Amino acid sequence: MELSDEDVAKLLAKDIDKHKSKAAYCVGATRGLFGGKRIGDKADRQRPSMKSVVPISEEPVAIAGPPGSVEPEEPGPEPACVVEFVAKNFAVSESIGTVKLRVKRKGDLTSEVKVQYESEDGIAKAGMDYHEVKGELVFLPQEDMKEIEVPIIDDSTWEEDEEFYVHLTSIVTVKGQVSGLGRASKARIVIIDDDCPGVLSFEKDVIEVQETSKDQVIQVLVNRKGGSSGSVSCKFQTEAASATQGADYVHTEGTLTFEEGVTSQEIAVTIISKGRVYGKEEFRLIMSEAQNGLSFDPERDGGPDQSIATIVILPDEVAKSRLDRVASLLRINRDRAALGASNWKEQAALGRTYGMVIRMS
What is the CATH number of the domain that holds 227? Predict the structure, then answer.
Protein backbone atom coordinates (compact mmCIF):
# COMPACT_ATOMS: atom_id res chain seq x y z
CA MET A 1 0.00 0.00 0.00
CA GLU A 2 1.42 3.22 -1.07
CA LEU A 3 1.09 6.13 1.36
CA SER A 4 0.35 9.57 0.17
CA ASP A 5 2.38 12.55 1.26
CA GLU A 6 -0.40 13.58 3.65
CA ASP A 7 -0.42 10.13 5.33
CA VAL A 8 3.34 10.28 5.84
CA ALA A 9 3.05 13.71 7.49
CA LYS A 10 0.33 12.47 9.90
CA LEU A 11 2.39 9.44 10.95
CA LEU A 12 5.43 11.61 11.62
CA ALA A 13 3.33 14.00 13.69
CA LYS A 14 2.03 11.16 15.90
CA ASP A 15 5.54 9.81 16.42
CA ILE A 16 6.89 13.21 17.47
CA ASP A 17 3.99 13.64 19.93
CA LYS A 18 4.88 10.32 21.60
CA HIS A 19 8.48 11.46 22.37
CA LYS A 20 8.07 14.62 24.41
CA SER A 21 11.05 16.73 25.37
CA LYS A 22 12.30 17.09 28.95
CA ALA A 23 10.83 20.55 29.02
CA ALA A 24 7.41 19.16 28.25
CA TYR A 25 7.63 16.67 31.10
CA CYS A 26 8.80 19.42 33.51
CA VAL A 27 5.87 21.60 32.56
CA GLY A 28 3.47 18.71 33.08
CA ALA A 29 4.87 17.90 36.52
CA THR A 30 4.62 21.51 37.58
CA ARG A 31 0.99 21.64 36.45
CA GLY A 32 0.34 18.56 38.56
CA LEU A 33 1.61 20.32 41.67
CA PHE A 34 -0.84 23.12 41.07
CA GLY A 35 -3.88 20.99 40.36
CA GLY A 36 -3.43 20.86 36.62
CA LYS A 37 -3.69 24.61 36.20
CA ARG A 38 -1.59 26.38 33.67
CA ILE A 39 1.13 28.39 35.28
CA GLY A 40 1.13 31.94 34.13
CA ASP A 41 -2.41 31.89 32.86
CA LYS A 42 -3.81 35.36 33.31
CA ALA A 43 -7.12 33.96 34.51
CA ASP A 44 -5.46 32.05 37.34
CA ARG A 45 -3.03 34.72 38.62
CA GLN A 46 -3.69 36.06 42.12
CA ARG A 47 -4.48 39.76 42.01
CA PRO A 48 -4.33 41.99 45.07
CA SER A 49 -7.66 42.81 46.58
CA MET A 50 -8.62 46.45 47.11
CA LYS A 51 -9.63 45.44 50.64
CA SER A 52 -5.90 45.19 51.59
CA VAL A 53 -5.31 48.90 50.88
CA VAL A 54 -5.32 50.98 54.14
CA PRO A 55 -7.73 53.85 53.75
CA ILE A 56 -6.31 57.37 54.41
CA SER A 57 -8.40 59.30 56.81
CA GLU A 58 -9.41 62.75 55.72
CA GLU A 59 -10.00 63.77 59.33
CA PRO A 60 -7.40 66.18 60.69
CA VAL A 61 -4.92 64.54 63.08
CA ALA A 62 -3.86 66.40 66.21
CA ILE A 63 -0.07 66.48 66.72
CA ALA A 64 0.81 66.06 70.37
CA GLY A 65 3.81 67.80 71.96
CA PRO A 66 6.56 65.98 73.84
CA PRO A 67 5.56 64.21 77.05
CA GLY A 68 5.11 66.65 79.90
CA SER A 69 4.75 69.67 77.63
CA VAL A 70 2.16 72.25 78.46
CA GLU A 71 0.39 74.84 76.46
CA PRO A 72 1.98 78.30 76.66
CA GLU A 73 0.38 80.37 79.33
CA GLU A 74 -0.97 83.78 78.85
CA PRO A 75 1.65 86.45 79.66
CA GLY A 76 1.39 87.57 83.25
CA PRO A 77 1.43 91.12 84.54
CA GLU A 78 4.54 93.23 84.08
CA PRO A 79 6.89 93.02 87.10
CA ALA A 80 6.77 95.98 89.42
CA CYS A 81 10.55 95.84 89.83
CA VAL A 82 13.40 94.27 87.86
CA VAL A 83 16.80 93.15 89.14
CA GLU A 84 19.84 92.66 86.88
CA PHE A 85 23.58 93.33 86.57
CA VAL A 86 24.61 96.85 85.57
CA ALA A 87 26.40 95.25 82.57
CA LYS A 88 26.62 91.86 80.91
CA ASN A 89 30.41 91.86 80.56
CA PHE A 90 33.19 92.75 82.99
CA ALA A 91 36.99 92.73 82.53
CA VAL A 92 39.36 92.63 85.48
CA SER A 93 43.09 92.35 86.05
CA GLU A 94 44.32 89.11 87.57
CA SER A 95 45.95 91.09 90.37
CA ILE A 96 42.77 92.95 91.33
CA GLY A 97 42.20 90.74 94.37
CA THR A 98 38.40 90.87 94.43
CA VAL A 99 36.03 91.89 91.67
CA LYS A 100 32.80 93.61 92.70
CA LEU A 101 29.87 93.01 90.38
CA ARG A 102 27.16 95.63 90.80
CA VAL A 103 23.52 94.52 90.70
CA LYS A 104 20.79 97.12 90.29
CA ARG A 105 17.08 97.16 91.08
CA LYS A 106 14.72 99.41 89.16
CA GLY A 107 11.00 100.01 89.30
CA ASP A 108 8.99 99.81 92.52
CA LEU A 109 11.43 99.93 95.46
CA THR A 110 8.89 99.81 98.27
CA SER A 111 9.25 96.10 99.06
CA GLU A 112 12.07 93.87 100.23
CA VAL A 113 13.49 91.66 97.46
CA LYS A 114 15.80 88.65 97.72
CA VAL A 115 17.91 87.44 94.78
CA GLN A 116 19.93 84.22 94.65
CA TYR A 117 23.18 84.02 92.67
CA GLU A 118 25.95 81.55 91.89
CA SER A 119 29.11 81.33 89.77
CA GLU A 120 29.79 79.05 86.80
CA ASP A 121 33.09 77.97 85.24
CA GLY A 122 34.10 79.00 81.76
CA ILE A 123 37.72 78.66 80.68
CA ALA A 124 38.55 80.05 84.12
CA LYS A 125 38.12 77.38 86.78
CA ALA A 126 36.94 77.80 90.37
CA GLY A 127 39.74 77.12 92.81
CA MET A 128 42.40 77.85 90.20
CA ASP A 129 41.48 81.23 88.72
CA TYR A 130 38.73 82.48 91.06
CA HIS A 131 36.87 81.41 94.18
CA GLU A 132 33.41 79.96 93.70
CA VAL A 133 30.55 82.09 95.04
CA LYS A 134 26.94 81.28 95.85
CA GLY A 135 24.58 83.30 97.97
CA GLU A 136 21.73 85.76 98.30
CA LEU A 137 21.36 89.49 97.86
CA VAL A 138 18.77 91.27 100.00
CA PHE A 139 17.37 94.57 98.75
CA LEU A 140 15.68 96.39 101.59
CA PRO A 141 12.94 98.90 100.77
CA GLN A 142 14.32 101.84 98.76
CA GLU A 143 17.66 100.07 98.11
CA ASP A 144 18.51 99.93 94.42
CA MET A 145 22.14 98.73 94.29
CA LYS A 146 24.03 95.72 95.67
CA GLU A 147 27.39 94.07 94.97
CA ILE A 148 28.54 90.49 94.54
CA GLU A 149 32.19 90.03 95.50
CA VAL A 150 34.25 87.36 93.74
CA PRO A 151 37.88 86.76 94.83
CA ILE A 152 40.31 86.42 91.89
CA ILE A 153 43.33 84.15 92.28
CA ASP A 154 46.62 85.74 91.21
CA ASP A 155 49.63 83.66 90.17
CA SER A 156 52.93 84.24 88.41
CA THR A 157 52.16 81.94 85.48
CA TRP A 158 51.26 83.69 82.25
CA GLU A 159 47.90 82.63 80.82
CA GLU A 160 45.58 83.66 78.04
CA ASP A 161 42.57 85.75 79.02
CA GLU A 162 40.00 83.52 80.73
CA GLU A 163 36.34 83.99 81.60
CA PHE A 164 33.76 82.71 84.06
CA TYR A 165 30.13 83.63 84.78
CA VAL A 166 27.87 84.68 87.62
CA HIS A 167 24.12 84.07 87.34
CA LEU A 168 21.18 85.66 89.11
CA THR A 169 19.13 82.50 89.50
CA SER A 170 15.88 83.49 91.22
CA ILE A 171 14.07 86.39 92.84
CA VAL A 172 11.62 86.52 95.74
CA THR A 173 9.59 89.49 96.97
CA VAL A 174 8.73 89.40 100.65
CA LYS A 175 5.34 91.15 100.38
CA GLY A 176 4.24 89.32 97.26
CA GLN A 177 5.10 92.13 94.89
CA VAL A 178 5.54 90.97 91.30
CA SER A 179 9.28 91.14 90.55
CA GLY A 180 11.51 89.66 87.87
CA LEU A 181 15.05 89.28 86.60
CA GLY A 182 16.15 91.55 83.78
CA ARG A 183 17.89 90.65 80.54
CA ALA A 184 21.31 91.15 82.16
CA SER A 185 20.81 88.33 84.67
CA LYS A 186 24.06 86.65 83.59
CA ALA A 187 27.44 88.40 83.90
CA ARG A 188 30.56 87.34 82.01
CA ILE A 189 33.82 88.16 83.79
CA VAL A 190 37.07 88.12 81.79
CA ILE A 191 40.29 87.80 83.78
CA ILE A 192 43.15 89.61 82.04
CA ASP A 193 46.57 88.27 82.93
CA ASP A 194 48.86 91.14 83.93
CA ASP A 195 51.92 88.93 84.40
CA CYS A 196 54.12 90.13 81.55
CA PRO A 197 56.47 87.35 80.44
CA GLY A 198 58.67 89.78 78.50
CA VAL A 199 60.07 90.37 75.02
CA LEU A 200 63.15 88.59 73.65
CA SER A 201 65.84 89.90 71.33
CA PHE A 202 69.48 89.27 70.56
CA GLU A 203 71.83 91.83 72.04
CA LYS A 204 73.14 92.49 68.51
CA ASP A 205 71.51 91.89 65.14
CA VAL A 206 74.95 91.47 63.51
CA ILE A 207 77.77 89.63 65.29
CA GLU A 208 81.28 89.68 63.80
CA VAL A 209 83.65 86.86 64.72
CA GLN A 210 87.37 86.79 63.91
CA GLU A 211 88.50 83.35 62.79
CA THR A 212 91.44 81.88 64.73
CA SER A 213 93.83 79.01 64.19
CA LYS A 214 91.55 76.73 66.24
CA ASP A 215 87.81 76.11 66.43
CA GLN A 216 86.14 78.54 68.82
CA VAL A 217 82.85 78.66 70.71
CA ILE A 218 81.11 82.03 70.90
CA GLN A 219 78.29 82.92 73.31
CA VAL A 220 75.41 84.81 71.69
CA LEU A 221 73.59 86.92 74.30
CA VAL A 222 69.76 87.00 74.40
CA ASN A 223 67.97 89.64 76.50
CA ARG A 224 64.49 89.46 78.05
CA LYS A 225 62.96 92.90 78.52
CA GLY A 226 59.60 94.37 79.53
CA GLY A 227 58.82 91.71 82.14
CA SER A 228 60.12 88.48 83.61
CA SER A 229 57.04 86.76 85.04
CA GLY A 230 56.82 83.01 84.82
CA SER A 231 58.90 80.40 83.06
CA VAL A 232 59.06 80.96 79.30
CA SER A 233 60.89 79.40 76.37
CA CYS A 234 61.49 79.50 72.62
CA LYS A 235 63.16 77.40 69.93
CA PHE A 236 66.48 78.32 68.27
CA GLN A 237 68.55 77.01 65.36
CA THR A 238 71.31 78.03 62.96
CA GLU A 239 70.68 78.54 59.25
CA ALA A 240 73.23 78.62 56.42
CA ALA A 241 73.83 81.64 54.21
CA SER A 242 77.20 82.09 52.45
CA ALA A 243 78.83 80.10 55.28
CA THR A 244 78.41 76.34 55.02
CA GLN A 245 77.22 74.12 57.85
CA GLY A 246 79.93 71.63 58.81
CA ALA A 247 82.68 73.58 57.01
CA ASP A 248 82.41 77.05 58.55
CA TYR A 249 80.29 76.42 61.66
CA VAL A 250 78.64 73.62 63.62
CA HIS A 251 74.86 73.48 63.30
CA THR A 252 73.03 73.88 66.59
CA GLU A 253 69.37 73.86 67.61
CA GLY A 254 67.36 73.47 70.79
CA THR A 255 65.13 75.16 73.35
CA LEU A 256 66.11 78.31 75.23
CA THR A 257 64.40 78.56 78.64
CA PHE A 258 64.06 81.55 80.97
CA GLU A 259 62.92 80.75 84.49
CA GLU A 260 60.93 83.19 86.62
CA GLY A 261 62.88 86.45 87.01
CA VAL A 262 65.71 85.49 84.61
CA THR A 263 66.40 88.29 82.11
CA SER A 264 69.28 87.00 79.97
CA GLN A 265 70.58 83.75 78.51
CA GLU A 266 73.31 82.69 76.08
CA ILE A 267 73.37 80.39 73.06
CA ALA A 268 76.67 78.64 72.29
CA VAL A 269 77.76 78.52 68.63
CA THR A 270 80.95 76.84 67.33
CA ILE A 271 83.00 78.49 64.55
CA ILE A 272 85.21 76.08 62.57
CA SER A 273 88.76 77.17 61.75
CA LYS A 274 89.80 76.52 58.16
CA GLY A 275 92.60 79.02 57.53
CA ARG A 276 90.43 81.71 55.98
CA VAL A 277 92.66 84.71 55.13
CA TYR A 278 90.57 86.64 52.62
CA GLY A 279 86.86 87.34 52.27
CA LYS A 280 84.12 86.71 54.84
CA GLU A 281 81.25 84.26 55.31
CA GLU A 282 77.99 84.56 57.23
CA PHE A 283 75.13 82.47 58.63
CA ARG A 284 72.10 83.13 60.83
CA LEU A 285 70.96 82.22 64.33
CA ILE A 286 67.15 82.27 64.59
CA MET A 287 64.81 82.21 67.60
CA SER A 288 61.16 81.24 67.00
CA GLU A 289 58.07 79.56 68.51
CA ALA A 290 57.87 81.65 71.68
CA GLN A 291 55.84 79.97 74.44
CA ASN A 292 53.78 81.03 77.48
CA GLY A 293 53.04 84.55 76.27
CA LEU A 294 56.62 85.36 75.35
CA SER A 295 57.15 87.50 72.24
CA PHE A 296 59.95 88.89 70.08
CA ASP A 297 60.86 92.53 69.59
CA PRO A 298 58.93 93.65 66.48
CA GLU A 299 61.45 96.45 65.84
CA ARG A 300 64.39 94.06 65.45
CA ASP A 301 65.43 91.75 62.62
CA GLY A 302 62.82 88.99 62.25
CA GLY A 303 59.82 90.99 63.45
CA PRO A 304 57.27 89.80 66.02
CA ASP A 305 57.33 86.13 64.97
CA GLN A 306 61.05 85.46 65.27
CA SER A 307 64.38 87.05 66.11
CA ILE A 308 67.41 86.81 63.80
CA ALA A 309 71.10 87.42 64.45
CA THR A 310 73.52 87.36 61.51
CA ILE A 311 76.93 85.95 62.41
CA VAL A 312 79.77 87.15 60.15
CA ILE A 313 83.04 85.16 60.10
CA LEU A 314 86.00 87.45 59.35
CA PRO A 315 89.43 86.26 58.09
CA ASP A 316 92.10 85.10 60.52
CA GLU A 317 94.19 88.26 60.96
CA VAL A 318 97.23 86.39 62.27
CA ALA A 319 97.28 84.05 59.29
CA LYS A 320 96.58 86.94 56.94
CA SER A 321 99.45 88.97 58.45
CA ARG A 322 101.82 86.01 58.13
CA LEU A 323 100.78 85.44 54.54
CA ASP A 324 101.20 89.12 53.73
CA ARG A 325 104.69 89.07 55.29
CA VAL A 326 105.67 86.01 53.27
CA ALA A 327 104.35 87.62 50.12
CA SER A 328 106.28 90.78 50.93
CA LEU A 329 109.48 88.78 51.43
CA LEU A 330 108.91 87.03 48.15
CA ARG A 331 108.57 90.38 46.42
CA ILE A 332 111.80 91.64 48.05
CA ASN A 333 113.74 88.56 47.02
CA ARG A 334 112.33 88.77 43.54
CA ASP A 335 113.36 92.41 43.31
CA ARG A 336 116.83 91.57 44.59
CA ALA A 337 117.13 88.75 42.14
CA ALA A 338 116.06 91.04 39.36
CA LEU A 339 118.58 93.68 40.50
CA GLY A 340 121.33 91.08 40.76
CA ALA A 341 120.59 89.86 37.29
CA SER A 342 120.71 93.40 35.99
CA ASN A 343 124.11 94.07 37.66
CA TRP A 344 125.52 90.83 36.27
CA LYS A 345 124.50 91.82 32.78
CA GLU A 346 126.16 95.22 33.16
CA GLN A 347 129.34 93.66 34.53
CA ALA A 348 129.42 91.14 31.71
CA ALA A 349 129.00 93.90 29.18
CA LEU A 350 131.84 95.89 30.76
CA GLY A 351 134.03 92.79 30.78
CA ARG A 352 133.45 92.18 27.14
CA THR A 353 134.26 95.81 26.31
CA TYR A 354 137.44 95.75 28.43
CA GLY A 355 138.60 92.56 26.75
CA MET A 356 138.17 94.05 23.31
CA VAL A 357 140.20 97.12 24.28
CA ILE A 358 143.05 94.96 25.55
CA ARG A 359 143.15 92.90 22.39
CA MET A 360 143.23 95.98 20.18
CA SER A 361 146.15 97.40 22.07
Answer: 2.60.40.2030
